[in-house]
Amino acid sequence: MDNCLGVKKLECIICGENTFPGLVILGEAICYSCEKKVAITGVEEDSYPFYLERIKRIWEAPLEF
Ligand SMILES: [Zn+2]
Fold this sequence. Notes:
The chain is α+β, with helices and mostly antiparallel strands. It is built from two helices and two strands, in the order E-E-H-H. Strand 1 (about 25) and strand 2 (about 30) form a beta hairpin. Bound molecules: zinc ion.
């Protein structure tokens, strides 16, 4: 599909699904289900470093203000 309107396709940075109109933080999108998963994932769980790594990308991405 041609994206002629300049609307960025929002892919969840965690699961890669198209998450529009999901949560967008600093230009990066997280779908609602992943946001919930991150919120309930404890530090001691195996998947926590995975989520943390994905979310860290948001803060490390160049800011465009
Ligand atoms: Zn997701």
